[in-house]
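User: My collaborator sent over this chain with a note saying "see what the structure looks like." That's all I know about it. Can you take a look?
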Amino acid sequence: MTAPLALSSPCVDAPHASTTVRRLGPNEAAATVPALADVLIDCVQGGASVSFMQPLPRDKAVAFWHNVAEGVARNERVLLVAEDAQGAVVGTVQLVTAMPDNQPHRADVAKMLVHRKARRQGIAQQLMAAVDDAARAEGKTVLVLDTVTGGDAERLYERAGWQRVGVVPGYALMPDGALCGTTFFFKHL
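Assistant: Without extra context I'll predict from the sequence alone. Here is the result:
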């Protein structure tokens, strides 16, 4: 098993004492697909605009996470999970490290997800601190992400030191089909 990551930045809210954030290796990523699919399905059911529409069939969620696990095996992604005291996956975030030749210093942060039952416990802050640490370990100095405009995640990213670049109105769809704007952020490490 991969060891928990040390967090370099404090959480705005106190982190949940029994939650551990750790990086998964290729075999663990593949073995964790069902639990990751559960988190993704819950977030989409809860209205999160994370590339999927409602209802999200389980086989589609599983296929997505299998692709992520394959990216981890190819060393193109870093996959972090937050686990509760019982070892259940309650959150996740990815660092996409496979970039064009002229951007070896950059990575994208993707699919920052926390199960609805585990929200408001500081887990998202733990995940964001851990993704910063993982990016440093990978030699990345510029991170980029996007999120739905006006959502809770915007405030989370701003508190974590991310800089707002701008908003693209009507960029994506919410899981129910309504158009939504997307806000882009960057962070220098």
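A starting point for your reply to your collaborator: Helices lie at 26-31, 33-45, 58-73, 123-137, 152-159.
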